[in-house]
Structures are given as structure tokens and as C-alpha cells.
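Reply to dn_fold:

You asked what the input looked like. This is it:
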Amino acid sequence: MISLQEARRLITDHIPPRAPRRLPLAEAHGLILAEDVTADAAYPDGDRSQMDGYVVRADAVPGLFRCVGEIPAGAVPSQPLEPGTCARIFTGAMLPPCGGRVVIQEDAAVEKDGIKLPVFSERMFVRQKGCEALPGHVILRAGSLLGAVELAMLAQVGAVFPLVIPPPTVRHLATGGELVDPSKKPGPGRIRDTNSSLLRALLTADGITDLNSGRIADDPEAMLLAADGNADLLLISGGAGAGDFDFGAVTLRRLGWTIHFDRVNLRPGKPLTFATRGNRAAFVIPGNPVSHFVCYHTALRLAVELAAGRPPSWPALWVDLQDAATLQPDARETWWPATAFVREGRLLVQPKPWSSSGNTFALAGTNALVQVNTQSPRDGQALTLLLTPPATVPS
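and this is what came back:
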């Protein structure tokens, strides 16, 4: 058996990022940019007002001004202002050719003879041409994660088909002759398939949009046909053990995959198997749902991130532990389902009453995994892997 740390190293060593391609902005959220993007023009493209107010010449001094018109956003004024005149201007509007300064409307007084501007602030309230970016200026570097702000930046410079690393395509096979569709009532000895729903939700949350799922019996020939596809990532639920009906690793070997490990010093999830063939990767996951949950967050998510070109995330930190007596130490490195929460500005974690890897109900409310080994927990704290942001609960 190898350690979880070694397993993660092997996954990192054997999964390259996918080849980049151009996608529309609407499909690029959460993806990694694969090229530098530069400004196509000066931003702003001219001197623009930062506030609603009145624009005057640069050489003007406080006094009474004759208002000669309005300049709304989107207008392009062509005539410079004459001495002693001003123009009503609105936020984002372009200044007249003479440039000048903007006096905010709070400092102006409308009088019968004109606009009195008694005070000029030290601020010009003008966004100078090119103050944000000049043509050819790099606004986003290759490797940037495209969140909402980055997509807005790409839209601003007209980069509507950015070159990005697309998420991996995934093929998932739920194996086991005992499985039935969740919509059906299972007969004696049968159970509803929960792992397909679990993995689909986890993968979707991590940006997977191309997921093909199937359900097959514990039959080596059926598994051989179902597993022989072109998806970047092949996930086989069940068939990871050493029993007579565990055909996961056997199938991968028959298809020419290289097995990098088939046992991890992990609880739950010991029989986790990882293999590659070319640029494709495969995992055979122990069939119990809690094992699926833990294996996904400790190993499979890493594979998804690597294939998508994202830097690996491992948001583990020491957190104050509530009710440590719930935890049951084991010789294997254990990642115990738990709930992390914030109370009175303090981050806390409460282990779940988990006793069986087959108990899906035990996962309710789980948003963290607590490490249980010789180093954790200690001094009232546990190394905790945060899976989603913790909620704030009342004291």
C-alpha cells in the first residue's frame, strides 16, 4: 500500500492538461486561459468624466459659467469649450477636445445667469485616456483562472473566443448486478444506484460538462466493451476489491492500461486504483458511497484539476475540533466526514457519527473531512479539508 501523499504524486505525474481550444465566453467560466490576452485599444479611449457634474476648460478658475449644452455617455463632443463656458456632463461621458476638469454637481449652483462653480476640488474627476490599459498591454496572462471578473475583462477587449483548457470529458460506469435505477423499487438483494448521482453532482460542481454515465452488471466482457471509449477520464464505481466479481483493474489491464497503484493507505477508500493509457486516466473506486465521497475529494478532484490545467487545490488547515470522542483512530490514514461552520467569528469542525462506508445518510451536511492519524487531531485541533465554504451558525 502507498500513502495518500504518494498516490497524489503519481496522479500529478501522469495527468497532463488537455490541449487548449477556443470557446465562447459563455462556456469559459472556471477554465484556465491558455494564452496572454492584450488590450485592443486604449482604455478608456479618451478622457472621460468620473462623476456627474460640469466640465470646464483646464485653465478655468472658479466663478460663473454659461452652460452651452449637455454631454451624455456615448456622445463624442467635437467642439472645444470657449473661455467662461461649461457643459453639463455625465459619468462615463467623453470630455470635449480641449480636455479640462469636471466640477461635481454637488459643488455647483444653478443660477439665473448661469452655473456658479465657486470651488474647484483638487481632484480633476477625469479618467485619462489609456490610464487603465494601452494598446498591446497584457490584461490577462496565460494560466489565469477565468472567473466572473476575468470574463468581463475579456468581453471589454473583444476577446469573445478565448483560448482555454477545456474540462476533461468523463465516462462513468456504475458496476454491480445488485444496482437498480433510483426511480425503481429494489427487489430482494438489490439496491438503488446512489454513486452515479453522487459523482455527477461532484463532477458538475467542478466544471465537468461532458459526462457519460452507464450502469453494467459484474460481467468482465460487458465491462470490457463499456470501458473501451475515448473519454479523458474513466471512472469505474465498484470492482476495486480483490473479490471474484471485482473486474475493474482486470478490465483496464486487458485494455492495455498501465496500473500505477491499486491500494492506498486510506480510510475509507483503500482499494482505490489509478491507471493511465496515453493521455487518458482511469480510476476504479471502492463501491461504498462514503468511499466514493472521500476518494473524490482526496484523489479524483486532483485528476479533474490537472486535466483542466488548474493548479491543484488542497484547502486543508488546522481547525478547532468539537467532540473529538466521535473519531475512531485506525492504522490507515482516515479522512472522517465532518461539518465545518463559523460561530462568533471562529471556525469549528464537528465530526459526523460515521460508522459504515455504506451509510449514505451519514454524509448529510458534510462539507469537510477531518484527518485522523498520528499527527491529527492534536491540542484540540484537527487538520481539516474544507470541501465547500462553511456556513455561519448562531451561538
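Residues 289-307 form the longest helix (19 residues).
Hope that clears it up.
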